[in-house]
Structure formats: C-alpha cells, structure tokens
C-alpha cells in the first residue's frame, strides 16, 4: 500500500495507535479505511466493496446498515440519550434487556450486570468472584482456571485469563492466581496414537490433577468459550464439556461460559452452551448482543453467585464496582431491537440451515496440499494452513492478503484463517464468499 501525503491513510498513520497491529508497520503502510456497510458487505474509501467474512470482529449478526437498529438508537437518543445505573437508578431499556436476557438464558440465571465489552465483562466476573469468596468467608478461594489458547479479553484481569502469548508478552501478565489448563484442540495437542476419547479423558484428568495440586478450596471457577474463537476456531471433541463439568462439580468449582463470540446464534443454537451441553453459573455476552452497533456486554449470574454478592454489598453498604456506561440506554435499546431481529427473522435457524453448506465448502478445501486441518461448527469455521519454515503466520497472512485483494475480509490467527460471516448471509452469498476464499487459497505458492 502506498500512502499519499495528507490522505486519510496518512493521517491515520500519523495519529492512530491501532489495537492488534504492528505500530511501525501501520506507520509505514497506513491502513484499510472502511467508509460504508450494507448487509454482508463493506466498502472502503476508494469504492472497493468486500464481503465482511468475519462479521467485523465475529459480531455483526444482522449485517451492516440495519435500519431498525439505526432507528432504535435515534429514538432512544432523542428520549433519554444517557443515564447511569449507579445508586439505584435505572431506565426502561436496561430493565427490559436484563429481563429479556434472564428469560433467554439456557439455564436459570438470577441477575444481569451490564458492562461495555467482553473484556470488561470478564474483568467484572473476576472481581465478583473475589468479592463472593470474601463474602462467604473463603478468602483463599479465588484462583481461576482458564485454558491455553482461550480468549477472554485484554484488560489486566481478562488478558490474564486469555491463554495467548501476545496478550501476555511485555505486559507482565498473567496475574498470580490465574492458571491455564490444556487446550481441547485434538488436532494440535493429542499425543501419538491417542483417540479423541482418550484425549478428552486426559484433559479431564490433567484438570483434576491441577485442582488437587493447587487445593480445591483455593479454586473459585473455570472459564471457557463453548467453542474457542480467537485461539483458532477450536471445536472441542465430543464429551469434552461433560468430562470437564464432572470434575468441576466434584470439587464445587463454578463454571463461567464466555459466550462473547458464540452467543445469539453463531453455533446454530441461541447459545454455544446449548450446543455444547454446558450448564454455567455465569455467562458473559457481548458482540452479537447488539451486532456491535453499540458497545454493550452483559454478565449473567445465577442465584448461587448472586446471593453472597448481595449480602456483601449489604454488609459494606454498596457494591463498589460499575462503569459510567453500564447499561447505557442507547446501547440497551439497540440490543433489544437486535435480539428482536434475530428472533423474528430466525437468524439462528438460518445459521443451522446453512451450516452444512458452510462446513462442506470448508472441507472441500482440505484437498489443497497447503491445508493442515479444517475446523468449524454452525457459521464459524477456519482452515489451518501448514506452517512455512520457522515463521508462524506466513501462510495465514498470505491467505488473508489474497482474500482481501479479491474482495473478502477474513482474519488470520497465525496460520489459521477464520470465517464467521453475518448470520443474515444467504446461500448465494455464501457461494460467492467461498469462491473467493477458494481462489485465494489456490493462488498461494511457497
């Protein structure tokens, strides 16, 4: 990319520090500037149109330019553009959204705490669990077990939960008291000759061994995505979550389901917990909650978690935690309308109906000798390409660039190239998306 002086790209390079980017590379090359979006497509400032094959960041369920969400935001902006939830204040959108989420939850939940991102949601969960442990007279019961390759955000606490090196390196993370159990990626971590059943049994045993080594009375919770997203679209083997939950129940350890990517239809059911047979005590929701039209996230807790927290807030006099934007009325109004659209248009059903085509097109591409493995479920999937030499990400980066050149935005996670299109995608559009993806793969040579 050649950056013209005084162009929007040059100004971006001069002033904007980008997340998840090489700052020096961005200075030198500038960035792709997106100006418009409609349906599954976005358009850059040169007029070039792309299929947004990752729904932005796994999140724009209803597509871009949805007028009902624009209208919902505008109407709420005119009525009550902002109010907070501190000191027993509230407003109708927050009340209605909390009620709706508790009613939708796949297992009984008690209360909803609103935050502004998945990172803030998971950070809040850590604090609530520490608070709860003190309330219950168990100040030692505060350790949290996450997983290698899990992704839970980028705040100090949530980045500690995340099990990816880039989120720890040079940040002095993870925090003490946060541990990482094995990753449920059979293709990447199975031992030679180990069946999937044996792999699952080993991971469960390793988790139990970790709990016993640390002391069961020191472990507050285990956190996991039903299906891992940013770690490489990792679908756990059959029986994995049943085996993990059996260990947690044995030692009275809470289960946190990070539904930030999976929630609201991505796996072909409303929640990934349903698809994977999980029975969480805490659920964290964001992304497709509002299709990312507004920043909002929600922490759902069951009564087992809520009651000690409520008692402690009564003893102290307040729950000393919250955000200026917690349950923002415009964001809550947009989220409510977004959920209505998902339900009315049966977008969860659309994901389930189109999933066989989505997965079969991915599987067809495994015939290419550059492909190491295909993974996916519902409308989230990826090809992992074979590593080229000693450098991780060379093949994946080349594939992402080839896709973008052809009008498809994807995301490479190292050498894994992910697809996660808006839930509104049609069969015809899916064929178009995969034709570009396949052509880009065919163009690669190393």
TrEMBL record:
GO terms for molecular function: adenosylmethionine-8-amino-7-oxononanoate transaminase activity; pyridoxal phosphate binding; taurine-pyruvate aminotransferase activity. InterPro entries: Aminotrans_3, Aminotrans_3_PPA_site, PyrdxlP-dep_Trfase, PyrdxlP-dep_Trfase_major, PyrdxlP-dep_Trfase_small. SUPFAM superfamilies: PLP-dependent transferases (SSF53383). The keyword Transferase applies. Pfam families: Aminotran_3. Its cofactor is pyridoxal 5'-phosphate. Its EC number is 2.6.1.77. It is an enzyme of class 2 (transferase). Keywords: Aminotransferase, Pyridoxal phosphate, Pyruvate, Transferase. One of its GO terms (biological process) is gamma-aminobutyric acid metabolic process. It comes from the Bacteria. Belongs to the class-III pyridoxal-phosphate-dependent aminotransferase family. This is Taurine--pyruvate aminotransferase. It comes from Thalassovita mediterranea. The lineage of its organism: Bacteria, Pseudomonadati, Pseudomonadota, Alphaproteobacteria, Rhodobacterales. The gene is tpa_1.
């Amino acid at each position: 990319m050649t950056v013209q002086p005084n162009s929007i790209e040059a100004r971006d390079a001069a002033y904007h520090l980008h997340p998840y980017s090489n700052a020096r590379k961005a200075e030198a090359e500038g960035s792709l500037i997106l100006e418009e979006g409609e349906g599954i497509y976005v358009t850059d400032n040169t007029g070039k149109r792309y299929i947004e094959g990752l729904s932005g960041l796994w999140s724009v369920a209803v597509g871009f330019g949805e007028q009902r969400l624009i209208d919902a935001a505008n109407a709420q902006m005119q009525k009550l553009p902002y109010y907070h939830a501190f000191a027993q204040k509230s407003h109708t959108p927050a009340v209605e959204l909390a009620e709706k989420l508790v009613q939708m939850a796949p297992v009984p939940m008690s209360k909803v705490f609103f935050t502004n991102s998945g990172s803030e949601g998971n950070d809040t969960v850590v604090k609530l669990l520490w608070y709860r442990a003190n309330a219950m007279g168990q100040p030692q019961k505060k350790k949290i077990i996450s997983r290698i390759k899990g992704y839970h955000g980028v705040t100090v606490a949530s980045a500690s939960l995340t099990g990816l090196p880039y989120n720890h390196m040079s940040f002095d993370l993870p925090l003490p008291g946060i541990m990482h159990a094995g990753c449920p990626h059979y293709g990447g971590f199975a031992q030679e000759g180990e069946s999937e059943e044996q792999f699952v049994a080993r991971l469960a045993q390793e988790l139990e061994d970790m709990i016993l080594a640390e002391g069961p009375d020191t472990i507050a919770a285990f956190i996991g995505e039903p299906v891992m997203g940013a770690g490489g679209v990792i679908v756990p083997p059959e029986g994995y979550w049943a085996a993990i939950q059996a260990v947690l129940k044995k030692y009275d350890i809470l289960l946190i389901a990070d539904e930030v990517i999976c929630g609201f239809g991505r796996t072909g059911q409303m929640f990934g917990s349903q698809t994977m047979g999980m029975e969480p005590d805490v659920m964290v929701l964001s992304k497709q909650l509002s299709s990312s039209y507004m920043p909002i996230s929600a922490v759902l807790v069951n009564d087992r978690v809520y009651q000690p927290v409520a008692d402690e807030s009564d003893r102290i006099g307040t729950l000393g935690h919250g955000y200026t934007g917690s349950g923002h009325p415009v964001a809550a109004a947009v989220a409510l309308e977004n959920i209505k659209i998902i339900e009315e248009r049966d977008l969860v059903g659309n994901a389930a109906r189109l999933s066989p085509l989505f997965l079969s097109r991915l599987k067809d591409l495994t015939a290419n000798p550059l492909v190491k493995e295909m993974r996916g479920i519902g409308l989230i999937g990826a090809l992992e390409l074979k590593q080229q030499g000693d450098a991780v990400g060379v093949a994946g980066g080349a594939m992402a660039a080839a896709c973008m050149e052809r009008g498809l935005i994807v995301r490479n996670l190292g050498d894994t190239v992910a697809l996660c299109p808006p839930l509104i995608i049609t069969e015809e559009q899916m064929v178009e998306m995969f034709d570009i993806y396949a052509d880009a793969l065919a163009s690669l040579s190393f």
